[in-house]
Write a structure and sequence with these properties.
Blueprint (H helix, E strand, L loop, with lengths): L7 H8 L18 H5 L22 H5 L6 E3 L8 H11 L2 H18 L6 E4 L4 H7 L3 H13 L8 E3 L11 H8 L3 E3 L7 E9 L3 H12 L4 E9 L1
Parallel strand pairs: 1-6, 2-5, 5-6
Antiparallel strand pairs: 3-4
Helix pairs in contact: 4-5, 5-7
Length: about 230
Amino acid sequence: MAWPVLTPGHLIDLLLPDLCRVCGGDTRSAGYCDACAAGLLRHGRQCRACGVPVVIDGLCGRCQRRPAPIAETVAPFRYAPPVSEDIHKLKYHRKLACGRDLGTLLARELEARLPELPEVLVPVPLHWRRQFQRGFNQSVEIARPVSRILGVPIETGLVKRTAYTPPQVGLGPATRRRNLRRAFKTTGATMPASVAIVDDVITSGATVAEVARCLRRAGVETVFVWALVRA
């Protein structure tokens, strides 16, 4: 596995970890300063269950016709710079500091919304082959600061990804759902009553929905989804 060359950007992350990723100003913790965070592109109204943009508050038409296994989705940002750039740096350039900063940003959003807190956080699991290739799970990196700031423990031993599926980028919603059907399994551990699934980007929603169905089948009563972006 090839490791990244230490660049000036990596040195800045190590030596000056509390500077805003956008303006370089001071932050109260790693990530984005309050002014730059307030200027990020956000969605307006979103479906409570799946997070897709809607015109009026409540559920989208699809979730009204076919109830989702998810009680509430929080995915406040649009897929646009600088958030999209930092997600790309994290996933494909191993800039783990971006995971810390993105997770801090998500935690601040959750603090502001005062959501119902779950018993545990479950980062969307990667298949072992993909995790070996990447060297880490980006959802775990984002979940770490969320866990620390909100005081909710991370549990990576409840769900495993058992099917190695092709990359989902560029695929339509129906194909994504077919690829992910029964791709996750619970491990037989005792299930909590409530869980928040943590992810970086929700595109079609097929991945988090399948993880949620898997958890619900195993006895979890309430499943939330917390992600940075609803594309």
